[in-house]
Design brief:
Organism: Protea cynaroides
Protein name: Zinc finger protein
InterPro entries: MBS1/2-like
Subcellular location: Cytoplasm; Nucleus
Main location: cytoplasm
Structural class: mainly alpha
Radius of gyration: 21 Å
Distance between the termini: 52 Å
Helix content: 25-40%
Oligomer: single chain
Number of helices: 4
Length: 106
């Protein structure tokens, strides 16, 4: 007997969650420390406030920050600094498609 209502196999959702957890940088370790510091590619935060240099991951979060911290100044999306555009454009190093893969692309 297998037990009470226990699935015999892993579900696609469970496998996808495990793959996502294994391949996504959650911010731990030395790589996460560099990522959080914002030195390489601006870290997790993509946008920077032009007034106080606070970073945010998306435009909506930046608008919330702006409304809370700078209520007298009108919000202008064009003035927000995109940190990833600055740093990603500079790097021309090719990245492998699969971790540890050194396949030659022909």
């Amino acid at each position: 007997m297998t037990g009470k209502a226990k699935p015999k196999k892993h579900t696609a959702k469970e496998i996808a969650a495990k793959v996502d957890a294994a391949t996504t940088n959650r911010g731990g370790g030395k790589a996460g420390q560099v990522d959080r510091s914002g030195l390489d590619k601006g870290g997790h935060a993509k946008f920077e406030c032009p007034l106080c240099k606070v970073t945010a991951p998306d435009v909506k979060s930046m608008q919330i920050h702006h409304d809370a911290k700078h209520p007298k100044i009108p919000f202008d999306e064009a003035k927000i600094n995109n940190l990833h555009a600055v740093h990603v454009a500079e790097s021309s190093k090719p990245r492998p498609g699969i971790r540890g893969s050194h396949k030659k692309v022909t």
